[in-house]
Specification:
- The chain is an alpha/beta fold.
- It is built from 10 helices and 5 strands, in the order βαβαβααβαβααααα.
- The protein has a 5-stranded parallel sheet.
- Helix 1 links the parallel strand 1 and strand 2 (37-43).
- Helix 8 (218-235) crosses helix 10 (247-256).
- The radius of gyration is 20 Å and the shape is globular.
């Protein structure tokens, strides 16, 4: 066994996560693997303090075993109130506070190379206009805490109304600016334990190609406006305040109905 993954629902609020990892750590105190075992966790970091403190206590224990490496992926592709709109029940203040607390723990570790920290992004129609701001925020975190932050992800293709490819061609500028930000600020490849920003930049180039397409899916655009209205009504959200740079696109989609 080389990878044991805890990928959700939301692992950090499941009690058995902690008992399972304790069992793994006890087992490999006496077993000479001869290779690294990766404990991979995918989380939204929207974790209440009671559980998050348990997780922070666990991190040094994981990386103190020379055979075990922690691969931690935080699901995120926007900041502030845009994150709260895109990801239901997320609390930006809590997410950012948890990130800060984790980075503080990271700074105290003597064996930092046992941790791969990643942002796992789901590139979607709603986050595109804020991508340069998001990646600038990632760069700031990487510099402030001297932590190699790997980027992973994919672009949303279903539901179709969340696909970036339905957006107008002029919004491709946001993706191209994002690529420039990442190219300028990427670290040497050997700093990242798994993956590197070049791979992720290739993903953004594919997103760019989709936005540049002129054969837009009209039905998906109709569905965009309809589903935004449903979300705002159901969750008491304000699309116009949260995404002022998408208002014109929303109005175009409304006109298709």
């Amino acid at each position: 066994v080389r990878i044991i993954g805890f990928i959700g629902g939301e692992p950090l609020i499941i009690d058995k996560l902690y008992s399972y990892i304790d069992r793994i750590l006890r087992k490999y105190e006496t077993v000479d693997l001869g290779h690294k075992l990766v404990i991979a966790i995918v989380t939204n970091f929207n974790t209440p303090k009671l559980y998050f403190d348990k997780f922070l206590d666990l991190v040094p224990k994981i990386v103190s075993n020379k055979w075990i490496r922690l691969d931690l992926s935080v699901s995120l592709e926007a900041v502030g109130n845009r994150t709260e709109f895109i990801r239901t029940n997320s609390n930006w203040h809590r997410i950012e506070s948890n990130l800060s607390e984790f980075f503080k723990v990271y700074e105290t570790l003597s064996n930092k190379k046992q941790i791969s920290f990643n942002f796992m992004t789901a590139i979607n129609a709603l986050c595109i206009t804020d991508l340069p701001n998001f990646y600038s925020w990632v760069v700031d975190k990487q510099k402030a805490y001297d932590i190699p932050i790997n980027l992973r992800g994919s672009q949303v293709v279903f539901p179709e109304w969340l696909s970036p490819s339905i957006l107008p061609e002029e919004l491709d500028d946001k993706v191209l600016r994002s690529i420039d930000i990442l190219n300028v600020n990427k670290l040497e490849k050997n700093r990242y334990l798994s993956g590197n920003w070049d791979d992720y930049i290739n993903l953004l180039r594919e997103v760019s190609k989709g936005i540049q397409r002129t054969d837009k899916d009209i039905n998906a655009r109709k569905s965009f406006a309809r589903n935004i209205d449903i979300l705002c009504s159901r969750r008491k959200l304000n699309f116009h305040d949260t995404f002022p740079d998408l208002i014109n696109f929303y109005e175009v989609c409304k006109n298709y109905e």
